[in-house]
User: Fold these one by one.
Assistant:
Number 1:
Amino acid sequence: MDAYLIDAVRTPFGKHAGGLSHIRTDDLAALPVARLIERNPHLSPADVDDVILGDTNGAGEDNRNVARMAALLAGLPDSVPGVTVNRLCASGAEAIVQAGRMVRTGDATHVIAGGVESMSRAPFIMPRPDRAFPRSLELTPTQVGWRLINPKMNAEWIRPLGECAQRVAEELGIDRARQDEWAARSHELADKAWRDDVFADRVMSVEGVTRDESIRPGTTTETLAGLRSAFTPDGAVTAGNASPINDGAAAVLVSAVPEPHAMARLVASATVGVAPERFSLGPVDAINKVLARAGLAFDDIDVWEINEAFSAMVLSCLHQLPKIPVEKVNRQGGAIAYGHPLGASAPRIIMDLCDQLRRRGGGYGIAAACIGVGQGMAVVVHVD
């Protein structure tokens, strides 16, 4: 039995403290779920077998299984269950893949999958004191990165992700100029995609927010060159060639029923582990593995989406995968422009991949993402 992506919708991706930051995370997750049901009146809400959402933080309003909360808040019957998964930056892809497995095995017919993240609303946390009446208490932010680190962890593993990506890029000879060029390309292509109205049927308006807020039209390598290093004094990774902090949610209807308007068929997926400090190369092994699993070659892939955590990361992967034509990668820009609301990012690239394939008349596509703590994931889809 095959699994099909029938329909998908997402919120705009709001910038940090931007137009979506006043919306509770569980309410944000419910928005595309409710819209997906509204857009597909042939599907009775009671026929949804499960709701699976990726969510990376889980420390605030997304605690206690945000997928179940979103299902209830979206008005689904209380008979519809929900489960939340966390594979960091690929959490939303993991949700879609798990939904596909349920459909393929006959455990479900219709599943809503996707992801959510409100990085603006990520709370501060405080560890439980080791003794009564501590003299001081320290609050830790949970927006991004490590927190409450286990002292047994290798020091190399827990370096900031930007610094890790920067080190790998330096090792491969990828300089600041190339990274800034890729970032400028991302903004230019994302702005063009919006001006070309390619998201008209995919991105829902939310309280007056109608467009991804982090896209900066007119971004040039010259303006990016003026930004200071973000992680080390003289490093190449800056706020301009890294993905920003964002808020957003996405939902995809995965079904066993190959409806005429289906977006795509799920073909294969692969997840791999790499050394945590070399997380930026995670997509390399994942792509090689998923191609072998699907019985495909690089030349068989018509469109590539590689989630842009950092320019350094995408360029490092392309350096290691020279058979991928650069012109086929992120042709509508990437997360450096759109933003990277962690749980919702991978569903966005899968949606964009399917839509690009459909506009070109079909073919195979791969969506891939690096994952913190040393993993990579890749998903193959096919459009007839």
Number 2:
Amino acid sequence: MTAPFGGAGRPAPGLPSLPTPPSGWPVGSYATYEEAQRAVDHLADSDFPVRDVTIVGVDLMLVERVIGRLTWGRVLLSGALSGAWFGLFVGLLLAFFNPAGSAFGPILVGVVSGVVFGLVFAAVGYGASRGRRDFTSASQIVAGRYDVLCQPRNAEKARELLAKLAMGTSGSGTSPA
């Protein structure tokens, strides 16, 4: 749960300021996060006080999916492109504060400088790895199952509502606790 403008220094009202284990009674257990989200959405649609509900991922795993192979060409192209974007940003700032009024020169200098620095930093970083990690990947934390917990004062009502949801959509893989 996040709050607008709420950072680490300002937690959302009612939430603990330090990491704490979740509390409440299990009212449902689901194989996917999407199913757990749908269950909580069903509770919200039924005018249930969802402030008492928590979704807890159990049996966490770090999953790293390999996207592709890294080559010198891909590394240098990626470095050049990211450098060009940063250089364009710097060039636009320089052009904005340029008293002469010409925007083309500062933007061109920014983009060219960005490409050069992007190429150099990408080549140095990739060369330092000496081929130990010649692939790109995306990491994600996933859970083996997702439990929906509810504070004891409303847990029985939540179980009843989730049982109605499971009966109404048979075959969805949901199971009330």
